[in-house]
Amino acid sequence: MATTLVSVEEYLSTSYPDGDCEYVDGQIVERNLGEIDHGDLQTRILFHLAAHHPHFWSAVAVRVQVRPSRIRVPDVVLVAGPQPAGRIITVPPHLVVEVLSPDDVLS
User: Fold this and answer.
1) Cα–Cα distance between 102 and 66 in angstroms, integer?
2) Is 106 domain-assigned?
3) Residue 34: predicted pLDDT
4) Is residue 105 part of a domain?
5) Whole-prediction pTM value?
6) Does residue 30 contact residue 14 with C-beta atoms inside 8 Å?
7) What is the pLDDT of residues 23-82, one digit of tens each?
8) What's the CA gap between 23 and 88, in Å, rounded?
9) Which of 20, 46, 56, 85 is least buried, going by the fewest C-beta atoms within 10 A?
10) What secondary structure letter does DSSP report for 89?
């Protein structure tokens, strides 16, 4: 089966109806969307980071460009300083958190 490669620009200009996908070397990779326990833990981590690290900016499910051909969407991200400019994070975050759900697999 042939795989259609997508450009970074096309990926960044596309909205995905079932939640944000990741971009890995020209391919769109679906993320496992969390359920109640997953969302609760994401929220608790975000609130903890925001309360205990006021000089950092934190968010849930923001696109992070880790290489020119790879964009991930971690569950929680912590960046030194104020909210980054632009549409996605392009500098290494201070911390990323991935909350694993029972249906997640290591890839």
Assistant:
1) 26
2) no
3) 74
4) no
5) 0.86
6) no
7) 999 999 988 777 899 999 999 999 999 999 999 999 999 999 999 999 999 999 999 999
8) 13
9) 85
10) B
